[in-house]
Amino acid sequence: MARGSDDRSHRLEAVAIEAGYAGTRVLNAVDLSPPDGQVTILIGPNGCGKSTLLKTMARILAPTRGNVLLDGKDIHTLNTKAVAASLGLLPQGPIAPEGLTVRELVAQGRFPHQSLLRQWTQKDEDAVNSAMSTAGITEFADRAVDTLSGGQRQRCWVAMVLAQETDLILLDEPTTFLDLKVQVDLMDLLTGLAHERGRTLVIVLHELSLAAAYADHLVMMKEGRIVASGTPDDIFTADRLKQVFGLDANVLRDPASGRLVCVPFGARRRLTEAAQ
Amino acid sequence: MSVATEPVAVQHPIRAWSGLPALLAALVGVFLLHIAVGAKPLPIGTVIEALTSFNPDVFDHVIVQNLRLPRAVLAVVVGASLSLAGALMQGVTRNPLADPGLLGLTTGAAFAVVLAHSTFGFTAMAATPWIAMAGALGAAVLVFFISRMVPGGATPLSMTLAGAAVSAFLGTVISLIHLLNQDTFENLRVWLTGALAGRDITLLWYIGPPMLLALIGGILLAPRVTVLAMGDEVAQGLGVKTGVLKAQLLAVVVVLTAGAVALAGPLGFIGLVIPHVVRLYVGSDYRWIVPYAALVGAIYLVSVDIVARVAIPPREISTGIITALVGAPLFVHLVRRRTR
């Protein structure tokens, strides 16, 4: 698979953006160009601005300086519903209204494609069915979302974004609070979208090893700036983890998959040292 | 919230428009019945005749056109408005206990009327609806500005809290005025329970058109309410301008509630209970909740008003009393059902 990417095209670009909340600046002169058809993963310590960057790129938050460009045009000047037809967002920890069924939830993803004159069509129906089948939730279609497990629920939300049928998909910590197996399944599903269907994904993640395993393009942030970006092979090193997270860790390569794994030093190592 | 030990499949909700013809038929049915019953019961045939080929020389036709039809229309408009406004409020605030009175509209209206009667000696019932309308709008503006001052601005939560505070305060002042002024209480006690009797129908000519627009607007905005109920960020990601949408919904709710209060006094329960009843049958998508709520609300209030008119002849019970008498046990039943 094609990894690393600077000659690739970028439909979505952040150019020198500054953004924040109520006078507090969170992002400082951030440039980001997620390569088309690949998985870009943002990591960084809590409060580093990775969610803020994602929201700004998804036009939820207006930058105080700089521009987010979609196909070369300032995303904040574009019609928001038109943007929603090419850019999907899954925010962190969304909550479905009580009693809403899976099918109804996924169907909301068709909102940008509908209007007063253009109501529900066969194309919408097909998009919903195909999204539910891709996310593996067809069997729950008529169940209420709030009766499902955390992993099933998250797959429903992913299906809603899929039903939106956008080339660009931004996800904010989609794996939080899920079992490791469920996290892996979800990441397989998401990277499949990029590599098999040419979608462009930008994902904020907490799990470092998961990020290193699945990113085509890895972005490390600290204190509102991007401190490193590139392929995991290039930038996912012990020195960088120390620099960005203040984390003492070893980075190992799993011999079977060739993927990088981060092993933090902690109390256990100190115990072993003490015992020696 | 109950802990579901075993996931229960949701009953397949009534799909799309399938329930609407039956409900429309039911509405026409209770509407005609409402006109037919009364001190002088009329055959349904006469009622239909009076409505379709009015003859001013026939006394029964005059009764229908001048006395009974206006009140039936009033019940339809008020019932549909309160129920639809309640459904929208529940969606926007993501609060299942929200109702149109949540923003202080009904208490504001009641307060204005009580104040006008006690302080300025307004006793002309003809002026009451306009005073009520002014009071409702005044309370809405007050609630809005209070919530604007809260850090974070006018969010559904801050508006709900401001509405509760304003309602509680005005409610207490109303009680105080009643204590100090026995006459006001005597004059207004029927109005304050919410009543459809003896209403000035000409008011409908003024308030009717904006209310009709608001009803249509509410139904058109309904699909967006479901999107909004999934949270602001999800909605914005789907291309909804959440600020604009909330302002539009607020305007719809204020027009419908202020209009309904002006027409019928502070009628309780409809806006709270009917959307929940509807939800049991159509599911949680506001695309369907909102139009069904409007229809069921209209049917409910017309039916309740029939009871109010015929329960203890020759007297009439105030409609608002029956709405709450039936509404309260129904609500308790719903709460039990949901939390069992």
Automatic annotation (TrEMBL), chain A:
Matching InterPro entries, A to Z? AAA+_ATPase, ABC_transporter-like_ATP-bd, P-loop_NTPase, Siderophore_ABC-ATPase
Q: Which controlled-vocabulary keywords does the entry list?
A: ATP-binding, Cell membrane, Ion transport, Iron, Iron transport, Membrane, Nucleotide-binding, Transport
Signal sequence segment: none
Location in the cell: Cell membrane
The ABC transporter domain is annotated at 10-248
| GO CC field | plasma membrane
Entry annotated with the keyword Membrane: yes
Q: What is its main location?
A: membrane
Q: How does it sit in the membrane?
A: Peripheral membrane protein
Entry's Gene Ontology BP terms: iron ion transport
Any single GO molecular-function term of the entry would be: ATP binding
- Tell me if Transit peptide is a UniProt keyword of this record: no
Q: Which family does it belong to?
A: Belongs to the ABC transporter superfamily.
What this protein is called in its record is ABC transporter ATP-binding protein
From TrEMBL, chain B:
**A Pfam family for this UniProt protein?**
FecCD
Main location, first listed in the record: membrane
Q: Where are the transmembrane segments?
A: 20-39, 72-89, 101-120, 127-147, 159-180, 201-222, 249-274, 286-311, 317-335
* Membrane topology designation: Multi-pass membrane protein
Which key words tag this protein in UniProt? Answer: Cell membrane, Membrane, Transmembrane, Transmembrane helix, Transport
Named from the GO MF annotations, one term is:
transmembrane transporter activity
The record's section on InterPro entries has: ABC_BtuC-like, ABC_transptr_permease_BtuC
**Transmembrane helix listed as a keyword:** yes
| Compartment annotation | Cell membrane
Which GO terms fall under biological process for this protein?
Answer: siderophore-iron import into cell
Q: Which GO terms describe its cellular component?
A: plasma membrane
Q: Per the similarity annotation, which family is this?
A: Belongs to the binding-protein-dependent transport system permease family. FecCD subfamily.
- Name of the protein: Iron ABC transporter permease
